[in-house]
Amino acid sequence: MTRAFGAESTTDEVLEGISLSGKRILVTGASAGLGVETARALVAHGADVVGAARDLAKAHRATEAVRSAASAGGGSLELIELDLASLASVRACADALLADGRQFDVILANAGVMACPKGTTQDGFETQFGTNHLGHFLLINRIASLLKPGGRLVNLSSAGHRFADVDLEDPSFEHTPYDEWQAYGRSKTANILFAVEFDRRHRAKGIRAAALHPGAIHTELSRHLTPEATETLVEAIKEIQNTHGGAPFSYKSVPQGAATSVWAAAVAPAEEIGGRYCEDCHVADIQDRDGLRGGVRPYALDAERAKALWAKSEELVGERF
User: Fold this and answer.
1) 157 an active-site residue?
2) Which of 204, 215, 230, 239 is the most exposed place for a label (fewest CB within 10 A)?
3) Which pLDDT band, with edges at 50, 70 and 90, does 240 fall under?
4) Of 188, 252, 261, 313, which one is the catalytic site residue?
């Protein structure tokens, strides 16, 4: 019987008693926060982790504890360069992984940016949509042949998907006034829709895909927010929760935040999470009421919307999969 976990569960609690020996897992964003903790927990249980990061020197410094955990737990860590804001870098990373040829049991698309000022990636896409979605879309589809039958794709999304649906007519805010939270919401909805369509396309091979919300955590992800902006956001969330009867707002620790990632990657039954959105180590309910932080908006799981986003993403990156 599957053990029950929740919002306060940690990575070590979720993986207690589980051996990941022989499992090979790709984790993007392995230079800070959730990516480092996710890698640490996985290698501590015997997994061989490939950590992808834009700044390899920073990643090497940040993963000292990961290498120690690997030595003690029988796993391993290797690093590879990946700048999701550059399609050239994404292609180079994918080519290197394909040339290496070793397969993956899990791909954890963890890296991302949040609420940053208006800007563009090296290829001219709005920064958050280009980095959070298009970079991962290109990487994962290019290396999809490396996912073993029975493998999994886990996309880190956010409760912030509730800020906005994707805009397939104006994905880079060329005709829409820019708002950093709307842009973040679009990118996080895209992460979920990508998982929905990837799951549909690959589940006949036993490969499943899911998206998840890790929770609110103090990490480098919030580096673009001033303390005042953070306080305003938290107070707004608290007011919404009080108005609509939601659970009180609280931050998670980093091990609590990464728990849902390792749960979806290695513990949850694949048939339960395939094509779904998860939070607090369980599959989230569909919620269409305003103000609720929990649950997933129906538009983020819409199969036809997912197909349309896939087609638009292929057009934008210039490749068909």
Assistant:
1) yes
2) 204
3) low
4) 188
